[in-house]
Design a protein that fits this description.
Layout (H helix, E strand, L loop, with lengths): L1 E7 L8 E7 L7 E10 L2 H8 L8 E2 L5 E7 L11 E4 L29 E5 L3 E2 L7 H4 L2 H14 L8 E5 L3 H12 L3 E6 L2 H9 L4 E4 L6 H8 L5 E6 L6 H7 E9 L13 H6 L3 E4 L5 H12 L7 E6 L3 H9 L6 E5 L2
Parallel strand pairs: 9-10, 9-12, 10-11, 12-13, 13-14, 15-16
Antiparallel strand pairs: 1-2, 1-4, 3-5, 3-7, 3-16, 5-6, 6-8
Helix pairs in contact: 3-4, 6-7
């Protein structure tokens, strides 16, 4: 039997994305065969697709997935046929701190989930939140877990603290939802008044249009009684980090997550970081135990992902173009059927 799959030919670029037919994989004794139901786009997926992150020829794209176990190997004990599962971004990183040998990323160092079927070690997936659709589940492994680790595990977020989110991508929206569910206040930035209103509807307490207020770090301080915020979800990178430092309170925490505005930082005054005793954390998703803890929390909350757009697998190029145009709010879903 054949299946459909999206592969990226070297050197990358949307013109080198190909929809192909290939054989459904055979599983080994410790593997499961998963029928992929859905995926969702992350900025990392776009960088791989464009060739900005080099990878092997004919790499299968996408790092998120939900699906159903349809076959198990003879040595598999953790899963049964019919179980609904979700992917993990680093299949080898089960628990503890990151180690170099753990960090082989799906959709980059290894083939991803832009495919109808995939064989995986039984340890490379986790349970899903009860009551969630497969489309909703597929938004969690990259964006949801990144926000969870940034705020909960590295940030130790407490009720009454204040969180700054940047923009309206998947990580930022999940961070907003997590922060509000934990009793925190949220300051949100965007260049779009329409998107700011949507953030307000999701619970954002303070709104700043960064296009109208380029020095928005000072505005954050004004909106927090000249204290600054306890946590910053920094997804902009070089173009926003200086303002994030200004916006952070004494002893605050900046979670370094993305480089949407570019990788190089300008006009960063390092003494300000020292004097304010700011703690920074580099966040690249998390381990499997972190994902399980996130799922357990979500099951006892009212959090549901915000999905603004849905594309079929065959329309993946169009989905990437939609992502590049910043037309989405929250997550872009990819369905396999």
């Amino acid at each position: 039997m054949n299946m459909k799959q999206i592969q990226l030919s070297k050197p990358g670029g949307l013109d080198n994305i190909q929809l192909v037919e290939t054989d459904i994989p055979r599983i080994k004794g410790n593997e499961i065969l998963v029928k992929v139901s859905a995926s969702s786009l992350n900025y990392h997926d776009l960088l791989v697709a464009l060739g900005s992150i080099p990878t092997e020829d004919k790499r299968v794209l996408l790092g998120d997935a939900s699906g159903e176990v349809i076959e198990i190997g003879e040595n598999v004990s953790k899963w049964r046929v019919g179980d609904k599962i979700m992917s993990v971004c680093f299949p080898k990183w089960i628990e503890g701190r990151p180690k170099r040998e753990f960090l082989s990323f799906i959709g980059d160092n290894e083939d991803g989930f832009a495919t109808e079927y995939i064989s995986l070690p039984e340890t490379a997936v986790t349970k899903i939140p009860q009551g969630w659709s497969q489309t909703e589940v597929a938004t969690l492994p990259c964006a949801g877990l990144t926000a969870w680790r940034a705020l909960v595990e590295e940030g130790n977020l407490q009720a009454g603290e204040t969180v700054l989110i940047q923009g309206t991508g998947g990580v930022s929206i999940f961070a907003l939802q997590l922060a509000k569910s934990m009793g925190a206040k949220v300051v949100a930035t965007s260049s779009s008044h329409e998107k700011l209103e949507k953030l307000k509807a999701l619970g954002a307490d303070e709104l700043i249009n960064y296009k109208e207020t380029p020095k928005w770090g000072k505005e954050v301080k004004i909106k927090t009684d000249n204290e600054g915020v306890d946590h910053v979800i920094e997804v902009g990178g070089g173009g926003t980090f200086s303002q994030s430092v200004t916006a952070t309170k004494l002893g605050g925490h900046i979670a370094m997550i993305g480089v949407l505005s570019g990788p190089s930082a300008e006009n960063i005054i390092l003494p300000k970081i020292f004097l304010k005793q700011i703690r920074t954390s580099g966040i690249v998703m998390g381990n499997q135990q972190s994902q399980i803890a996130m799922v357990e929390y979500i099951e006892n909350s009212d959090i549901k992902p915000i999905i603004s757009d849905t594309f079929d697998l065959a329309d993946l190029v169009r989905a990437f173009k939609h992502q590049m145009g910043h037309k989405h709010f929250g997550k872009i879903s990819i369905t396999m059927t």
